Amino acid sequence: MTTLTTLTTTTLEISPEPGSWVTVCEEARLTPGRGVAALLPDGRQVAVFRDRSGRTYAIDNRDPFTGAQVLSRGLVGSAEGRPFVASPLLKQRFDLETGRCLDDDEVTVPVYPVRAK
User: Is this prediction's pTM over 0.85?
Assistant: First the structure.
């Protein structure tokens, strides 16, 4: 007798607008400490991250200092217990929970709620 095993795949969804959810990737595609870029149906790009404790975050992929879509390629770390990504270009750090730039109080990037489904 052959036994079939069903693999379940957990997907990650973000909420780009209140009340709407968009599937962005399979959770297994995220490597702790690294990001991936996802394209939303409206053409916006988001950067999705999993930290080393397993928590996921989504922020806009656009670096506000250069205009380049590169934040998903940034370095993930923490400062004073706050998770951040450092832009790979000019190294400004963005809080993954709030989007606030840790190096310039006047700059933020949009953040998006994330859920596993």
Answer: yes
